Amino acid sequence: APEEWRERFDAMIAADERIEPRDRMPDDYRRTLIRQIAQHAHSEIIGMQPEGNWITRAPSLKRKAVLIAKVQDEAGHGLYLYSAAESLGVDRAELLDLLHEGRQRYSSIFNYPTLTWADVGAIGWLVDGAAITNQVPLCRCSYGPYARAMVRICKEESFHQRQGFECLYVLARGTDAQKAMAQDAVNRWYWPSLMMFGPPDAESPHTARSMAWKIKRFTNDELRQKFVDIIVPQAEVLGLTLPDPDLRWNPERGHYDHGPIDWEEFKQVLKGNGPCNRQRLEHRRAAHEKGAWVREAARAHAAKHAARTER
Ligand code: ACO
After folding, report:
1. Which segments does the entry list as coiled coil (predicted)?
2. Is residue 1 predicted with pLDDT exceeding 70?
3. How many angstroms separate the CA atoms of 43 and 74, rounded?
């Protein structure tokens, strides 16, 4: 019967079972996953740029080694995620073309500049902290390959978050200039990190559908709230302030209230008008073109290998 597979799919989602590449799935489910996983993969590789900017200027050998490891981890996350997307029947070369043509998105957060060394700390603490808050529930995503890719990614992200926190902790206990640099970085990254979770639930076109499919386990606003509740006490430990005068504990809700987010800024960044959108995409396209010979060599090697095993 034509609807038998559909009933089976719905039953699997209801029973919290994982959907695997061999299972038949609704076209919209597949399309939603391709969009989200591709956007996620693109974010990982574009995300190498803001921090990569500080590798040559890291203040010590230890900081440099940590930062290189971290940026390499982001490249690896991109690779697992492109592989997860490919299990849905798309090709990574095609996805990269869509990114380069500006037809698929990457996270808004990576369109902001890294002005000082303290930005490396603020990105680790706030940006990777927000990423983990969003990604831990994705380990329970209904699509198996995406959920499994998230397990290792989350472990690595928590190392990134810890290194950022520690970097800021040291700066906040350094000279007055170092402390001011740490505070300035937190001031600039706080609001954009809250925007990472996406538009408010009432304006999020995909949330309800993705929650019903168990792709998303929490709404954008729920995760944003979780994140704010985590970072307020951490900021106290750091001895830094979050640049939000409306931030206060709400005993009735059992959560911190935060001030209004500038959604106009978010919309502008999504439209391509953030401070670094153009630079990020240009740099990515140039890196892709410079890597053409590597892809060509890999293809030639694979063809040679295939011919040899055929014999
Ligand atoms: N940056 C860029 N685009 C965004 C962002 C953001 N921070 N948040 C939402 N959007 C886009 C959505 O892709 C969607 O685009 P579309 O309408 O063109 O398809 C639109 O804004 C509306 O948003 P939602 O309906 O809320 O979309 P969705 O249900 O996909 O939720 C979210 C957005 C929460 C980002 C989700 O896709 C997700 O969890 N993705 C996986 C995590 C991820 O991509 N992280 C990358 C940054 S973390 C890191 O790499 C270190």
Report:
1. none
2. no
3. 9
Full-prediction pTM beyond 0.95?
Answer: yes
Report ipTM for this prediction: 0.98
Give the integer Cα–Cα distance in Å for 118 and 179: 9
DSSP state of 241: -
Does ligand 1 lie within 6 Å of residue 108's CB atom?
Answer: yes
Q: Which residue's alpha carbon is nearest to atom 37 within ligand 1?
A: 36
Contact 88, 33 (CB under 8 A): yes
Beta-bridged to residue 249, according to DSSP, are 256
Nearest residue (by CA) to ligand 1, atom 30, is 36
**Per 3-state DSSP, what percentage of the chain is helix, strand, and coil (rounded to 5)?**
70, 5, 25
Evaluate: CB of 204 within 6 angstroms of ligand 1: yes
Positive or negative, the CA dihedral 112, 115, 116, 117 is: positive
- Spatial neighbors of 26 by CB under 8 A, at least 6 apart, are 6, 9
Question: Is residue 7 packed enough to be buried (19+ CB in 10 Å), middle (13-18) or exposed (0-12)?
Answer: exposed
Distance CA 60, CA 99 (A): 35
